Amino acid sequence: MSKRIAVLVFPGTNSEEETLRLLRDCGGDAHLVHWSRAKLLPQFDAYVLPGGFAYEDRIRAGAIAAHDEMMDAVIDGAQAGKLVLGVCNGAQILLEAGLVPGTGTVRRPTAAFTRNGPVPHFICRHVWVKLAIEPKRSPITAGLKDGELIPAWAAHGEGRLAADEAHLAQIERGGHVAFVYAHRDGSVDASAIPNQSALGAAALVNAQGNVLAIMPHPERDGWAFNHPDRRGRAGILEPSGGALFFRSFVMGVNR
Amino acid sequence: MSRAIAIGLKIPDNAAYTTLTTLQRLGIDVARVERNDILIIDDAGEDALRRIERDERVFNPNKHRLTDLGVAQPRPGEVWIAEHHAPPGRYVGWRLLNRAGAPVDRETLERATTSLLCNPAIETARYQTREGTL
């Protein structure tokens, strides 16, 4: 029997439908759980925090949500080894909750995905992210190939990884950078980074490998009709590259 | 001489209310939260205030209340938060009051700051008597 995945909906979440659909298309037994039903969450085997603007980004992106009752269950689950994935605003929440990079204590963040650089503007553009860890370092990425390239859409005003030098060194040394921004051919340099994110990071993972926070949206390149190379109408519902990532997550949940 | 100007909402402040309920959920004894944009200006003259009131980018008389705090430092029960790369002299001020309507004590304020109001990875907190990353 496949394990159950909760897709969390906070007030202000806006990417839950495409996240749910892609998880299901990838074989996941996924269900939406709204903030008023937080008590249901312990029954689930894995958690996905989609993008949006939880609690309207009051105080800071992810700050209020990180202290929501829903996150009590997510933190307990993460500490028990359940898989947790945060995308965009979900990633910001996981950093505010201290689950990733996990170099501090819970709910005492040591890093943040914060205002883009060099100009603090919202960006919406197609990007490629490259797996920067050994695939088996995390059950979430274990279904990917070494150095796998995943297409995604960056759609954020606050996606730049920032931390003090000591924590950035810890993040790098500890192998917490799960994905880096890359060019389409897989090469990596500063010009591939859309937001001046430290270490070129597009995603972070905790030490145990069961919690991963990714800023760009793989689920928005989940079907061919999402992909910028699509021409014509043929095969528009075929899976696109973003589905590889979600398939790997679902495999990790059901392992 | 520098002075601080606080621009807050005179309509209900949903962000302040959410912050209040979150602090209470964290077990922090606070009964009211006030949130202001804080501007530090060097011009001490009355003209400076009038200029801010006429600047529609920062002040809408139907929505905002402008308070001249005088001296450029947080009040008791108040912490000013600035992003590390924010322009100088721009803060978000959080003022916490207890059930009696008085400013909370320093310990409560620091607890609220470290628990919720400030992410030290990207922000600095400034209290009445000192400035520094928490």
- N-to-C order of helices and strands of chain B: EHEHEEEHEE
What coarse outline of chain A follows from CA principal-axis ratios? globular
Spell out the helices and strands of chain A N to C.
EHEEHEHEEEEHEEEH
CATH architecture of chain A: 3-Layer(aba) Sandwich
CATH homology superfamily of chain A: Class I glutamine amidotransferase (GATase) domain
| Gyration radius of chain B, rounded | 15 Å
Q: Which segments of chain B are poorly predicted (pLDDT under 50) over 5 or more consecutive residues?
A: none
Distance between the termini of chain B: 28 Å
Tally of alpha and pi helices of chain B = 3
Helix share, percent of chain B: 10-25%
Q: Treating each run of at least 4 consecutive H or I residues as one helix, how many helices of chain A?
A: 5
Structure notes:
The complex is a heterodimer of chains A (255) and B (134). Chain A has a 9-stranded mixed β-sheet, sandwiched between helices. In chain A, strands 5-8 form a two-stranded antiparallel ribbon. Chain A is an alpha/beta fold and 255 residues long. In chain A, 58% of the residues are buried. Chain A has helices at residues 16-25, 69-79, 89-96, 165-173, 242-254, and strands at residues 4-9, 29-34, 46-49, 83-87, 112-114, 123-131, 149-156, 160-162, 177-182, 201-205, 211-214. Chain A is 20% helix and 23% strand. Chain A has one domain: Class I glutamine amidotransferase (GATase) domain (Rossmann fold, 3-Layer(aba) Sandwich). In chain A, α1 (16-25) links the parallel β1 and β2 (29-34). Chain B has helices at 14-25, 46-54, 106-117, and strands at residues 3-9, 32-41, 64-70, 78-83, 90-97, 123-126, 131-132. Chain B is globular. Chain B is α+β, with helices and mostly antiparallel strands. The longest helix of chain B is centred in the first third of the chain and has 12 residues, at 14-25. Classes of the chains: A alpha/beta (255), B alpha+beta (134).
